[in-house]
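Case study 2.
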Amino acid sequence: MVADLASTVKALAGPTGILVVQRESTVGGRAIWQNSGDRPAGGRTAGSRPAIILWTAYDYPQYAAFAYRAGAAGFVVKTAPTAELVEAIRRVAAGGSHFSSRPDLGTLPLSSREREVLERIVDGRSNDEIGGELGVATRTVEAHLTRLFERYDVRSRTELATRAIREGWLDVPSTAE
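Prediction:
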């Protein structure tokens, strides 16, 4: 099976270039994705850098969504049969994409203002601090939070922040310095 995978990569990667990322460190993977050129989410442009297929042990839709938003052309879990990884490489080499986990691209999207409020909640800021930073009244921040609590069926700021982090609602910040 490994020989099939190696021969497929050699036969198909050629000048198009495919990079299968298997490193489990989120920092390493994130750095590769963010420095991989200017590709639209989930695809490649002609002459762009190698397409990226994330090969991971983590079968979470929010990870697939992050990979998609960051421009990866594929997402395959390590528990998948080798044939699926080979098929992903073939599809990506042909200019397509392959995601074994369906990216959760958000069934309940956040408005840009809700995202700004939520990012500050995750950072531990108070309603007064958020209002001051965004140039809105504290009551406006409270109204945004009330809508978020109702929409996501949570009862506290902590529960909202925890869920946002666990489910990948916010973009992962860059760790490059």
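DSSP finds eight helices and four strands in the chain.
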